[in-house]
Each structure stands twice: as C-alpha cells, then as structure tokens.
Amino acid sequence: MSIQYSQESRIFRDFRCIPYSDYYYLIRFYEQYNTDIDHLPFDQGLIMSYYYANALFETYEYESHIKIANYILEQSIINNIRYIDGDDVYVTTLYKKTYAHMKLGEYDVAKDLAKQLVRITDNNIHCSNLLAQCYREVRPSWVKPVLITSATASLFAAISIILFSFFQEFFAPQLFHVSYALFSLAVIGLSASIFVHYKYVVAPTRKILSQARADRKSDFSKKST
C-alpha cells in the first residue's frame, strides 16, 4: 500500500520544498532537525528518512546510508508500506543497500541481498545486473589483468602482422613467428579469462535467476489453484 499522509508539519513542508537532487542540502536539513523529525507523524518521518537515505547514497556515504536503510526496510514491512511518491520503497531501498555493501567490500552480504532482490522482482534488469556485479567482484583477481594484457597483446600482434606483411622485405622472417606467438598467447589468455568469468559470474547468476523465475511460477500456480 502507499503511505497515508497526515496533516503536514512546518518542518515537513520546508523539507518538501528542497529539490530532491540537492543532496547535500537535504542531508544538512535532516541532520539539523533530526530530533524534531523523531516526533513527527510516522508518514512524514518515513518520507524524510527515505529521501535522506537516498541523498546519503548519492553522496557515497554508504555506511550512514545502510543504517537508515535498515530502519526504512523494517518500517516498510511492519507498517505494510510499499510506495512513497510512486517509488517502490522496499525494492529501491534494498537495491541501494545492496550496492552500498558491495562498495564497502562486504561481498557476502551484498550477494545475499542481491539474491533476495531477484527473488522478489519480476525480471528487473537492474537487479540482475547488480547480482552479476556482486559475483564479478569476487571472481579470481587475475582475470581482469589477464584480459587487459591479452587484449593488448592481440592488438600488437595484429598490427605487427599487418606491418610485416606490407614491409616484409625489411624484416627477418623469424619476426613473423614472434607475432604469431603473441597472438597465440593472447588467445589462450582470453579463453582462460572467458571461461573463469563464465564459471564464477555468468553461471551462478543464471542459476539464481532461473531458480527465482521457477519459484515465482510455482507461487503463481499455487495461488491460481
């Protein structure tokens, strides 16, 4: 359900006049009147907390964001609040909380939350991408440098082969072997990186997404009967 509005207080009216893209002003205002906000009607306090959490997220204050996000998620469940100003408060807050944990290096927490997100959302590409990103952060650390090195080596190999072909009379024939060896190593590196990326990122992500779709289909079938 959407939040039910009570008669607006002065602090709430002043807060609503602040552009929601003015993150630093929102943060200063909320923290200045934090004590007064605690005594506001529930709906007004939750709305202000929601936009305060968003401002913290947008200004990379991830630890502070997580604390207020926990409160918002708890209150949205207890009071059955689904929407604030048309936003799905639970999904939006959980998504940003997940991202915040990931940016703080808390990958296990982030993965668990991302799994929860894809289970409760219906084919949301942003949630699916966030889950994949969580897995990408914990794949073997050598994958990225090997990918970059292999791509660079293949580029140099291709350029050298072209140059040797056009100006072969100026180069020793053995130099062709160096270019082909570089190209072969690049292919091996790229192949290994792609395999590991699939094993540690693509495969587990697809497995969780498939299970989430199967669970939703099963729940729908049970409700239909």
Give the SSE layout.
Blueprint: H1 10-16, H2 23-32, H3 34-37, H4 42-58, H5 62-78, E1 83-84, E2 87-88, H6 89-103, H7 107-120, H8 125-137, H9 143-166, H10 174-224
Antiparallel strand pairs: 1-2
Helix pairs in contact: 2-4, 4-5, 4-6, 5-6, 6-7, 6-8, 7-8, 7-10, 8-10, 9-10
Give a short account of the largest sheet.
2 strands, antiparallel
What portion of the residues fall into strands of 2 or more residues? under 5%
Number of continuous helical runs = 10
Q: Let me know the number of strands.
A: 2
Poorly predicted regions are none
List the secondary-structure elements in sequence, H or E: HHHHHEEHHHHH
User: Helical percent range?
Assistant: over 70%
Can you offer a commentary on this structure?
- This protein has 225 residues and is mainly alpha-helical.
- It is built from 10 helices and 2 strands; from the N terminus they run αααααββααααα.
- A two-stranded antiparallel sheet has the order 1-2.
